[in-house]
Amino acid sequence: LKHKNLSKGYYEKITYGNLNFLIKYSKTFKVVDAYNGEYSKTYRKYQTVDKNNIMNINSKRNFLKIYDNEEKDIVKFMRKEKIKFKKANSKELKKLVKYSNDIQTKSSDN
Questions:
Q1: Which of 44, 45, 61, 102 could be disulfide-bonded to 24 (CB atoms 3.0-4.6 Å)?
Q2: How far, in Å, CA of 88 to CA of 11, rounded?
Q3: What is the pLDDT of residues 27-37, one digit of tens each?
C-alpha cells in the first residue's frame, strides 16, 4: 500500500477496498552498555487509509466514529464475539472490520 503521508515501517493490511485498516508494528532498541541492548515490547498503532486521508485509530470510540450510523450494531457484534478492541488479535480485527464494512455497505445500499 502506497500513500504519500504514510510513514515508513512494517504494516499489516487488515482489509481491502476504499477504506484500508492497517496495523503498524514498531519496537525500539535501548542500548544498555557498549556490548548489550534490548528491544522494547512490540507496539501496535491502528490507522485507516482512504484515497486522501490517514486517520489514527487510538480507541474503540475512534473506530466506531468511522461507522457512526452502525455503532449500535457493531458494539453488539463485538460483545457477541467477545472482541476487545485494544487487545484484539489480527484475526479478530479482520472479523470486526469485515463486519463493519459489510453492515455499512448494506445501510448505504438502502
A1: 45
A2: 16
A3: 999 998 989 99
